[in-house]
Amino acid sequence: MRILAISHPAVARAYRRKFELIAASSDVELRLVVPEAWPEEARRVVFDPTDAPNWVTSLPIAFEGYYTRYFFTRGIAEQFRDFRPDLVHIEEEPYSLSAGQALWMLRRHTPTARLVFRTSISADIRLKAVALPFLRMIESAVFRRAACGFVLSERAGEIMRRHGYRGETRVFPNGVDTDVFRPADESTRDARKAELGLSGDVVGYVGRLIPVKGIETLLDAVGDMPTATVLIVGDGPHRSVLERRAEGLGLADRVRFVGSHPTERVAEMMAAMDVFVLPSRTSATWVEFFGRVAVEAMAAGVPVIGSSSGEIPNTIADAGIVFPEGNARALAESIREVLTCPELSAELRARGLARVRERYAWEAVARNTVEAYAEIMRAPRRT
Fold it and tell me: So what's the pLDDT on residue 97?
C-alpha cells in the first residue's frame, strides 16, 4: 500500500514516531509531508532534514495563525502526481484548509485513492473556524469523500456524525513515545529533584498556563500541605496571575515555574514528580479533548490525578484518580491519599504503565493504523 500522510505536528521529530513504525511495516510504502516550519505556542519548530528519513518531505506553507488555516504554497501537487498513493491520510481536521487542499489534489491527480481524516474534536463546541462558510463546505466535501474518520474518542465520532459525517469511524487516541517517557528508579528520581532544587513530595503539572487548565485549583489544593512542592512545567499568558496566586497563598517558596522545555527535557522533569495532576476546567468554549500529558506521566511511571473535564476520565480510566473539576478540597484529598499510601501509589504506577502499553504506546497505535489501512483498502470504495 502506498500511503501519503500529511501532518503538521510531525514537523517535530517527537511526533514522527508513529510514522516511523508505520514505515517499518512490510505492507506499507510511506511518504509523509510536513511543513518546513510550524509556530508552536511560544516557539517556532523548524523541520530538520538531517534528522529525518528520506520518506519525509517538508514544504513551505501559508499560515493564518490557527492550526486549521494553513496550506502548502508549492510542491504538494507533485506529492500526489509522482507518488500516486493508494490512500491519503490527513492528520488534520476535516474543516481545515489543508484538508481541502488535499481533497482537491486527490480528485485531480489520484481520483481512485482512498481518503482518511483525523479529528481531535471531543466536545460538541463549534469552533470559530467552522463558522466560515467555505470551511463548512470543505468539511462537507471531506465527509462525503472519506473512507474513514480516525477519531480521538467515541465522543469525537458522535460529534462528527452530528455534524453530518455518515462514514466509518475508528478510535485512535494520541500516542506516547515510551522510549522517551519511561519510569525512573528511586535514585534517578532523587537526582532529578536535587537538580531542580526540589525537596519533599513533588506535585507536578505540565502544559500551557491558561485559565482553562485549572492550575488555581492545584495551588489551592496544596495550600495546607507543608511538605509538598509544586513543579509547573510550561508557560503561557496566565503565568503572572498564577505567580501572584501562589504568593497570596503563601506558596511562593514551594511553587516552581520552570517554563517550557523540549519533550525530552519534560520527560526528565517528570522523573522528579511523586504525583502528576491535570486539573483542567471546562469553559463555554473549551473542554479537555484528551489529556496527552496525563498519558505521558503514566508512561513515565508517575501516579496520575485528573479532573472530570472532557475526556480525562476516559483517558486515564482506572489507571488514575478523577476528582470533580474545580473542587480543590477533593483534589487535596486525592493528592494526600497518593502521597501517604505507598501501596496506592505503586498500584497506580502499575496500572498506568499497563494502560500505556496496551492503548497509547506508539507501537500499538501504529500497528492498529496499518491494520486499519489494509481493511479500508479491502472495502468497497466510497464515491
Answer: 93
Indicate the domain borders of the chain.
2-175+361-378, 186-359
Q: How far is CA 2 from CA 22, 86, 87, 93, in A?
A: 11, 5, 7, 22
Record the pTM: 0.86
Which residue's entry shows cell 459525517? 165
- Using 70 as the pLDDT threshold, list the residues of the chain that sit under it: 41-42, 122-132, 382-383
Under 8 Å between Cβ of 335 and 328: no
CATH 3.40.50.300 fits 2-175+361-378, yes or no: no
CATH class given for the domain over 186-359:
alpha beta
